[in-house]
Structure formats: C-alpha cells, structure tokens
Design brief:
It is a single chain. The chain is α+β, with helices and mostly antiparallel strands. Among the domains are: about 60 residues, Helix Hairpins; about 90 residues, Sandwich (HSP40/DNAj peptide-binding domain), CATH 2.60.260. The chain is about 20% helix and about 35% strand. It contains 6 helices and 17 strands. The strands form 7 sheets. A 4-stranded mixed β-sheet has the order 12-13-17-16. Strands 2-11-9 form a 3-stranded mixed β-sheet. Strands 1-10 form a two-stranded parallel ribbon. β5 and β6 form a beta hairpin. It is elongated.
C-alpha cells in the first residue's frame, strides 16, 4: 500500500484531503493534453490508480503469499480456506455513450448477465457432497518436477480446488454450481469521460467455484455524431458559410455543446480556416482540465442558382479579383 502513497508523493497515512489535493496537482501536470512526453500516458494511469485505491474507489491488487516449496503450507486444510483464492476472470463490456452524455455527464443504468452461486446446492453442483478422492478434500495435491527433483503444489482439477465432489446432481443449476442472472447497476459517467476510458465495478461479476467474485470492466465507446468529432478533450466541427460571407466577412452565430456562440469571420476568409474557441471542449470533471472547440470554416456551394445570380457571377468572373 505504501507504493501508492509514494506515487502521489505522500507519506503513508496521509488524509483523504491530502490525497485528493496531491492527485489533482499531479493529474494536471501529467495529463496527456498538457504533457506531451512519451511517459505521460503511463504516468497518468499510475496516478489515477493510486488515487482510486487510496480513496477507496478501487481495491488494491491481491498479493499472493509466498509458498515454501519444501513445506506444505496448507497444513492439511482445504485449498480454499488458506487465503489462496484467486479472483475470477473479469467480465469485459462496452458502454456506448453519446457526445452529449460525455460532455454533460450522466448516470447510465446498465444490465448484463452474470453467473451467481446456485441457491439450491450452494455452488457445489450437487445436493450431497463428499471429500474429493483425488486430493483427499484438500483442494490441492503435490506434483514432483522430475527435472529439478522438487515438489510443487497444484490445484485439484477434479474438484476445482473446492475439496468436495457431488454425489447427487442439483436440478436447479444442472450440476453447474451457478445459475444465470441479470445484474442491474447505475454507472455514474463523469464529465469529460473520453473514448477508451475504463470504469471498474468491483465484485459485481460472476461467481466461479473456488474463486472470488469477478469484477466488471466497462470500456467507454463514444458514438459518432453528425456534427461534433471528439479528439481527447477537444471538439471539432465544420461550419458551412456562404461564399459571400467568407469574402465580405460576417459575425456568425454557431451551435456548440455549451450553447450558441458568435464568431467573427474575417474579410477574405480562406477556405477551411480553423477558428479555436478556448474552453468550449469537454471538461474533465476529475481534474478540471478543459478542452477547446475547433471550428473549420467551409464555403457552402449552392445546389441551384437563379438566372439573375448566374449573371452576377459571370460579371464577377471577368473582374480583376475573381478572374
């Protein structure tokens, strides 16, 4: 646990206020939108992980005890009762969000299927059980490595480490030990959640015999938008303007995720000119970092023109500045 304090530059036992303050400072310093170094991506992940663990939002990875290969560390007790339980394989899901949802933040109610320990047989797969004959109820057995002449401890495949085998199959789960259920949770989506971000919900996944309940990993996928395109915290959009407005210049009102804003189109504005509107991108709610809005000014060509408009354009084509 001390290493997580060290990542944030804190002493062990720092208060929650100190932890949050240190995290915000380092997150601002190493955020990829501000820090262009190659190590910024890895560093920000370490900083966020340290904050989530120290603030109680995420459990620290389980450290496996070191076994003495020359001594039976199980003392005759079952494998599952000696603190050697592994966590079940996580469930990986994709969560689709709209651009508006990641800009404003939201709460999404999601449902997914999980395996839950059968209430009829309590996960054994049978109504009656007995000690596993292969491992003698220990959940493991010793195996000799002929190359080195050493004994290693191996989880028993016959009972999956439980130490028990069924005598009578369970009719509820059909001997699987688990039944499929629908899990419903509410996920808080903070402002500025970008493509590829992961939300971890601990201990909400599936039950697996001989292991702790798994976690659920939600990978964020931002759906395509007809107007806006996201690039990290920055937002891009195209704004079509008439040829006349781009030549003569105009004060134009445009739509943004934050509402309507006016921009000044300069005289003789070149095609595809990009205007930067600071602070009108996504807002990272956790760090306070704000992206920008980049507006590309694109000349709009009319699909049809009147005879009068055609005559005017013909005159312009023969003039000095339009020839």
């Amino acid at each position: 646990m001390n290493k997580y304090y060290e990542i944030l530059g804190l002493k062990s036992g720092a208060s929650q206020e100190e932890i949050k303050k240190a995290w915000k400072k380092m997150a601002l310093e190493w955020h990829p939108d501000r820090n262009q170094s190659e190590e910024a991506g890895t560093k920000i992940q370490e900083i966020n992980e340290a904050y989530e663990i120290l603030s109680g939002k995420k459990q620290a990875p389980r450290e496996e005890p070191q076994a003495n290969p020359f001594q039976n560390p199980f003392g005759g007790n079952r494998f599952r009762n000696r603190g050697f339980r592994m966590k079940a394989r996580p469930i990986n899901l994709v969560l689709d969000l709209t651009v508006e949802e990641v800009y404003n933040g939201t709460t999404k109610r999601v449902q997914f299927h999980v395996d839950r320990t059968c209430g009829g047989c309590h996960g054994t797969g049978g109504l009656k059980t007995t000690a596993c004959p292969v491992c003698q109820g220990k959940g493991m057995y010793t195996d000799r490595d002929m190359r080195f002449g050493m004994h290693t401890f191996v989880m028993c495949n016959n009972c999956s480490g439980s130490g028990q085998v069924r005598l009578e199959s369970c009719g509820t789960c059909h001997s699987k030990g688990t039944t499929v259920q629908v899990e419903t949770i509410d996920l808080k989506i903070t402002k500025g959640t970008v493509e590829g971000s992961k939300i971890i919900v601990t201990n909400s996944g599936s039950d697996v015999p001989g292991a702790d309940r798994s976690d659920v990993f939600f990978t964020i996928h931002v759906l395509s938008h007809p107007i806006y395109e996201l690039s990290g915290l920055n937002v891009n959009k195209k704004e079509e303007l008439s040829f006349v407005d781009m030549v003569l210049g105009k004060n134009v009102e445009i739509e943004t995720l934050a509402g309507k804003f006016k921009i000044d189109v300069p005289t003789n504005c070149e095609a595809n000119k990009v205007v930067r509107l600071r602070g009108l991108g996504l807002i990272d709610e956790e760090t306070g970092i704000t992206g920008d809005l980049y507006v590309k000014l694109v000349p709009k060509v009319p699909k049809e023109i009147t005879e009068e408009e055609k005559q005017i354009l013909e005159k312009l084509r023969s003039s000095v500045n339009f020839s």
